[in-house]
Amino acid sequence: MHNSGPILSIQNVTKRFRNNAGDWFHAVNDVSLSVAQGEIVALVGESGSGKSTLGRIALGLIRPDSGSVCLDGRDLAGLSPAELRAARRRMQPVFQDPTASLNPRKTIRALLAQASHPDAIELEAYAIGLLESVGLTPGSEYLARFPHELSGGQRQRVAVARALAMQPALILADEALSGADVSIRGQILNLLLDIRQKRNVAYLMITHDISVARAFADRVAVMMRGRIVEHGPAGEVLTNPTHDYTRSLLAAVPEL
Ligand SMILES: Nc1ncnc2c1ncn2[C@@H]1O[C@H](COP(=O)(O)OP(=O)(O)OP(=O)(O)O)[C@@H](O)[C@H]1O
Protein backbone atom coordinates (compact mmCIF):
# COMPACT_ATOMS: atom_id res chain seq x y z
CA MET A 1 0.00 0.00 0.00
CA HIS A 2 2.81 2.45 0.81
CA ASN A 3 4.51 3.09 -2.49
CA SER A 4 7.19 5.64 -3.16
CA GLY A 5 4.82 8.10 -4.87
CA PRO A 6 3.27 11.04 -3.05
CA ILE A 7 1.05 10.36 -0.07
CA LEU A 8 -1.42 12.95 -1.21
CA SER A 9 -1.92 13.95 -4.79
CA ILE A 10 -4.50 16.55 -5.78
CA GLN A 11 -4.99 16.77 -9.52
CA ASN A 12 -6.83 19.48 -11.44
CA VAL A 13 -9.37 19.98 -8.69
CA THR A 14 -12.18 22.47 -9.20
CA LYS A 15 -14.95 23.46 -6.81
CA ARG A 16 -17.57 26.12 -7.40
CA PHE A 17 -20.01 27.69 -4.97
CA ARG A 18 -22.80 30.19 -5.39
CA ASN A 19 -22.26 33.64 -3.92
CA ASN A 20 -24.98 35.66 -2.18
CA ALA A 21 -26.25 36.98 -5.49
CA GLY A 22 -26.73 33.38 -6.66
CA ASP A 23 -23.87 33.46 -9.15
CA TRP A 24 -21.39 30.62 -9.37
CA PHE A 25 -17.75 31.34 -8.63
CA HIS A 26 -14.66 29.16 -8.43
CA ALA A 27 -13.53 28.67 -4.83
CA VAL A 28 -10.89 26.26 -6.19
CA ASN A 29 -9.94 26.50 -9.84
CA ASP A 30 -7.96 23.70 -11.50
CA VAL A 31 -5.55 23.16 -8.63
CA SER A 32 -2.88 20.44 -8.54
CA LEU A 33 -0.69 19.84 -5.51
CA SER A 34 1.07 16.86 -3.99
CA VAL A 35 2.70 16.02 -0.69
CA ALA A 36 5.41 13.36 -0.38
CA GLN A 37 6.24 11.26 2.65
CA GLY A 38 7.77 13.38 5.41
CA GLU A 39 7.44 16.55 3.39
CA ILE A 40 6.12 19.88 4.70
CA VAL A 41 4.09 21.79 2.17
CA ALA A 42 2.68 25.21 3.04
CA LEU A 43 -0.39 26.43 1.22
CA VAL A 44 -0.50 30.18 1.70
CA GLY A 45 -2.87 32.86 0.56
CA GLU A 46 -5.10 35.54 1.96
CA SER A 47 -8.52 34.98 3.45
CA GLY A 48 -11.03 33.67 0.94
CA SER A 49 -8.44 32.42 -1.55
CA GLY A 50 -9.79 28.86 -1.30
CA LYS A 51 -7.24 27.19 0.98
CA SER A 52 -9.70 25.66 3.45
CA THR A 53 -11.96 24.46 0.67
CA LEU A 54 -8.98 22.69 -0.90
CA GLY A 55 -8.13 21.24 2.54
CA ARG A 56 -11.65 19.90 2.97
CA ILE A 57 -11.52 18.38 -0.48
CA ALA A 58 -8.17 16.75 0.38
CA LEU A 59 -9.70 15.25 3.53
CA GLY A 60 -12.60 13.84 1.53
CA LEU A 61 -15.07 16.05 3.42
CA ILE A 62 -16.35 17.70 0.27
CA ARG A 63 -16.30 16.37 -3.25
CA PRO A 64 -14.70 18.38 -5.99
CA ASP A 65 -16.77 19.22 -9.08
CA SER A 66 -13.93 17.82 -11.16
CA GLY A 67 -10.42 16.57 -10.70
CA SER A 68 -9.18 13.91 -8.31
CA VAL A 69 -7.66 13.39 -4.88
CA CYS A 70 -5.44 10.36 -4.45
CA LEU A 71 -4.18 9.06 -1.16
CA ASP A 72 -1.38 6.48 -1.43
CA GLY A 73 -2.08 6.42 -5.14
CA ARG A 74 -5.77 5.57 -4.77
CA ASP A 75 -8.53 7.91 -5.87
CA LEU A 76 -10.78 8.80 -2.90
CA ALA A 77 -13.77 8.88 -5.23
CA GLY A 78 -13.38 5.15 -5.92
CA LEU A 79 -13.27 4.04 -2.27
CA SER A 80 -16.02 2.27 -0.36
CA PRO A 81 -17.21 3.96 2.86
CA ALA A 82 -15.01 1.60 4.92
CA GLU A 83 -11.99 2.29 2.73
CA LEU A 84 -12.65 6.02 2.96
CA ARG A 85 -12.69 5.78 6.76
CA ALA A 86 -9.36 3.96 6.68
CA ALA A 87 -7.97 6.57 4.29
CA ARG A 88 -9.10 9.35 6.62
CA ARG A 89 -7.10 7.81 9.44
CA ARG A 90 -3.94 8.24 7.34
CA MET A 91 -4.68 11.94 6.97
CA GLN A 92 -5.45 13.70 10.24
CA PRO A 93 -6.61 17.30 10.56
CA VAL A 94 -5.48 19.70 13.27
CA PHE A 95 -7.66 22.79 13.27
CA GLN A 96 -7.07 26.32 14.40
CA ASP A 97 -8.87 26.34 17.68
CA PRO A 98 -8.29 23.35 19.97
CA THR A 99 -10.89 24.71 22.40
CA ALA A 100 -13.55 24.19 19.76
CA SER A 101 -12.26 20.87 18.46
CA LEU A 102 -11.69 19.12 21.82
CA ASN A 103 -14.94 17.97 23.42
CA PRO A 104 -15.04 19.83 26.79
CA ARG A 105 -16.90 16.98 28.53
CA LYS A 106 -14.21 14.40 27.83
CA THR A 107 -11.04 13.82 29.75
CA ILE A 108 -7.76 13.75 27.90
CA ARG A 109 -7.73 9.97 28.40
CA ALA A 110 -11.12 9.63 26.70
CA LEU A 111 -10.19 12.03 23.89
CA LEU A 112 -7.07 10.06 23.07
CA ALA A 113 -8.71 6.64 23.46
CA GLN A 114 -11.43 7.66 21.04
CA ALA A 115 -8.87 8.69 18.46
CA SER A 116 -6.51 5.78 18.86
CA HIS A 117 -5.48 3.49 16.13
CA PRO A 118 -7.59 0.31 16.21
CA ASP A 119 -4.44 -1.75 16.69
CA ALA A 120 -3.48 0.03 19.91
CA ILE A 121 -4.08 -2.41 22.74
CA GLU A 122 -2.54 -0.92 25.83
CA LEU A 123 -4.59 2.26 25.56
CA GLU A 124 -3.41 3.83 28.77
CA ALA A 125 0.25 3.34 27.98
CA TYR A 126 -0.37 4.42 24.41
CA ALA A 127 -2.05 7.64 25.58
CA ILE A 128 0.80 8.39 27.99
CA GLY A 129 3.34 7.82 25.24
CA LEU A 130 1.45 10.20 22.94
CA LEU A 131 1.27 12.91 25.59
CA GLU A 132 4.97 12.60 26.30
CA SER A 133 5.78 12.72 22.59
CA VAL A 134 4.15 16.16 22.46
CA GLY A 135 6.05 17.35 25.51
CA LEU A 136 3.36 16.83 28.16
CA THR A 137 5.38 14.99 30.79
CA PRO A 138 4.73 13.00 32.80
CA GLY A 139 1.83 12.01 30.56
CA SER A 140 0.00 10.24 33.37
CA GLU A 141 -0.64 13.59 35.07
CA TYR A 142 -2.76 14.80 32.18
CA LEU A 143 -5.00 11.78 31.61
CA ALA A 144 -7.75 12.68 34.08
CA ARG A 145 -7.88 16.36 33.15
CA PHE A 146 -10.47 18.10 31.02
CA PRO A 147 -9.46 20.44 28.19
CA HIS A 148 -10.38 23.56 30.23
CA GLU A 149 -7.91 22.46 32.91
CA LEU A 150 -5.03 23.00 30.49
CA SER A 151 -3.30 26.10 29.16
CA GLY A 152 -3.82 27.12 25.54
CA GLY A 153 -0.44 25.72 24.54
CA GLN A 154 -1.14 22.45 26.35
CA ARG A 155 -4.48 22.17 24.57
CA GLN A 156 -2.70 22.64 21.23
CA ARG A 157 -0.33 19.84 22.21
CA VAL A 158 -3.26 17.57 23.08
CA ALA A 159 -4.79 18.36 19.68
CA VAL A 160 -1.52 17.30 18.03
CA ALA A 161 -1.36 14.17 20.23
CA ARG A 162 -4.87 13.28 19.21
CA ALA A 163 -3.98 13.63 15.54
CA LEU A 164 -0.92 11.42 16.10
CA ALA A 165 -3.02 8.78 17.87
CA MET A 166 -4.14 7.43 14.49
CA GLN A 167 -0.56 7.11 13.28
CA PRO A 168 -1.25 9.29 10.26
CA ALA A 169 1.06 9.62 7.30
CA LEU A 170 -0.07 13.20 6.81
CA ILE A 171 -1.30 15.95 9.10
CA LEU A 172 -3.37 18.66 7.57
CA ALA A 173 -2.97 21.72 9.79
CA ASP A 174 -5.46 24.40 8.89
CA GLU A 175 -4.34 27.66 10.47
CA ALA A 176 -3.38 25.44 13.38
CA LEU A 177 -1.00 28.04 14.70
CA SER A 178 -2.66 31.34 14.06
CA GLY A 179 -4.80 31.29 17.19
CA ALA A 180 -1.83 30.81 19.45
CA ASP A 181 0.36 33.56 20.83
CA VAL A 182 3.88 33.96 19.52
CA SER A 183 5.71 31.92 22.16
CA ILE A 184 3.25 29.02 21.96
CA ARG A 185 3.43 29.17 18.20
CA GLY A 186 7.18 28.76 18.21
CA GLN A 187 6.88 25.81 20.58
CA ILE A 188 4.26 24.08 18.48
CA LEU A 189 6.22 24.65 15.27
CA ASN A 190 9.24 23.07 16.91
CA LEU A 191 7.09 20.21 18.12
CA LEU A 192 5.79 19.57 14.59
CA LEU A 193 9.34 19.56 13.23
CA ASP A 194 10.43 17.18 15.95
CA ILE A 195 7.51 14.84 15.17
CA ARG A 196 8.37 14.87 11.52
CA GLN A 197 11.90 13.82 12.33
CA LYS A 198 10.80 11.02 14.65
CA ARG A 199 7.84 9.69 12.69
CA ASN A 200 8.40 10.94 9.16
CA VAL A 201 4.92 12.49 9.12
CA ALA A 202 4.13 14.82 6.23
CA TYR A 203 2.31 18.12 6.72
CA LEU A 204 0.05 20.20 4.59
CA MET A 205 0.03 23.54 6.42
CA ILE A 206 -2.78 25.83 5.41
CA THR A 207 -2.07 29.36 6.50
CA HIS A 208 -2.49 33.01 5.54
CA ASP A 209 0.80 33.68 7.27
CA ILE A 210 3.75 33.32 4.96
CA SER A 211 6.16 33.55 7.92
CA VAL A 212 4.96 30.07 8.97
CA ALA A 213 6.00 28.84 5.52
CA ARG A 214 9.33 30.55 5.91
CA ALA A 215 9.87 28.96 9.30
CA PHE A 216 9.48 25.40 8.23
CA ALA A 217 8.08 24.47 4.84
CA ASP A 218 10.03 22.46 2.27
CA ARG A 219 7.71 23.57 -0.48
CA VAL A 220 5.31 26.50 -0.77
CA ALA A 221 2.21 26.90 -2.91
CA VAL A 222 0.65 30.34 -3.10
CA MET A 223 -3.07 30.51 -3.69
CA MET A 224 -4.99 33.50 -5.00
CA ARG A 225 -8.67 33.55 -5.90
CA GLY A 226 -8.90 29.80 -6.21
CA ARG A 227 -5.73 29.27 -8.21
CA ILE A 228 -2.19 28.33 -7.33
CA VAL A 229 -0.21 31.23 -8.75
CA GLU A 230 3.23 30.22 -7.56
CA HIS A 231 4.67 26.94 -6.39
CA GLY A 232 8.15 25.68 -5.62
CA PRO A 233 10.84 24.98 -3.03
CA ALA A 234 10.38 27.29 -0.03
CA GLY A 235 13.84 28.78 -0.42
CA GLU A 236 13.10 29.88 -3.98
CA VAL A 237 9.54 31.08 -3.58
CA LEU A 238 10.28 33.05 -0.44
CA THR A 239 13.55 34.62 -1.46
CA ASN A 240 12.84 35.07 -5.14
CA PRO A 241 9.08 35.29 -5.67
CA THR A 242 7.97 35.62 -9.27
CA HIS A 243 4.40 36.68 -8.63
CA ASP A 244 3.37 40.13 -7.36
CA TYR A 245 0.87 38.56 -5.04
CA THR A 246 3.60 36.51 -3.32
CA ARG A 247 5.68 39.68 -3.00
CA SER A 248 2.79 41.47 -1.35
CA LEU A 249 2.29 38.60 1.11
CA LEU A 250 6.00 38.71 1.93
CA ALA A 251 5.98 42.48 2.32
CA ALA A 252 3.10 42.23 4.81
CA VAL A 253 5.00 40.18 7.42
CA PRO A 254 7.54 41.51 9.86
CA GLU A 255 10.89 39.69 9.91
CA LEU A 256 10.77 36.80 12.36
N1 LIG B 1 -20.01 26.02 1.51
C1 LIG B 1 -19.80 27.19 0.89
N2 LIG B 1 -20.77 27.81 0.17
C2 LIG B 1 -20.55 28.97 -0.49
N3 LIG B 1 -19.36 29.61 -0.50
C3 LIG B 1 -18.37 29.04 0.20
C4 LIG B 1 -18.52 27.82 0.92
N4 LIG B 1 -17.32 27.51 1.51
C5 LIG B 1 -16.47 28.51 1.18
N5 LIG B 1 -17.08 29.42 0.39
C6 LIG B 1 -16.46 30.61 -0.23
O1 LIG B 1 -15.36 30.14 -1.01
C7 LIG B 1 -14.27 31.07 -0.94
C8 LIG B 1 -13.05 30.36 -0.43
O2 LIG B 1 -13.24 30.04 0.94
P1 LIG B 1 -12.13 29.30 1.82
O3 LIG B 1 -12.67 29.12 3.19
O4 LIG B 1 -11.69 28.10 1.09
O5 LIG B 1 -10.96 30.37 1.82
P2 LIG B 1 -9.65 30.43 2.71
O6 LIG B 1 -8.55 30.80 1.81
O7 LIG B 1 -9.52 29.19 3.51
O8 LIG B 1 -9.98 31.64 3.67
P3 LIG B 1 -9.64 31.81 5.24
O9 LIG B 1 -8.16 31.97 5.32
O10 LIG B 1 -10.40 33.04 5.61
O11 LIG B 1 -10.17 30.58 5.92
C9 LIG B 1 -14.75 32.20 -0.04
O12 LIG B 1 -15.23 33.23 -0.88
C10 LIG B 1 -15.87 31.57 0.76
O13 LIG B 1 -16.80 32.56 1.15
TrEMBL record:
Domain ABC transporter, first and last residues per copy: 8-250
Protein name: ABC transporter ATP-binding protein
Keyword flag Repeat: no
MF-aspect GO terms: ATP binding; ATP hydrolysis activity
Bilayer-crossing regions: none
SUPFAM superfamilies linked: P-loop containing nucleoside triphosphate hydrolases (SSF52540)
GO biological process: transmembrane transport
PROSITE patterns with a match to the protein in the record: ABC_TRANSPORTER_1, ABC_TRANSPORTER_2
Similarity remark: Belongs to the ABC transporter superfamily.
InterPro entries per UniProt: AAA+_ATPase, ABC_transp_ATP-bind, ABC_transporter-like_ATP-bd, ABC_transporter-like_CS, P-loop_NTPase
Keywords for the protein's UniProt record, in alphabetical order: ATP-binding, Nucleotide-binding, Transport
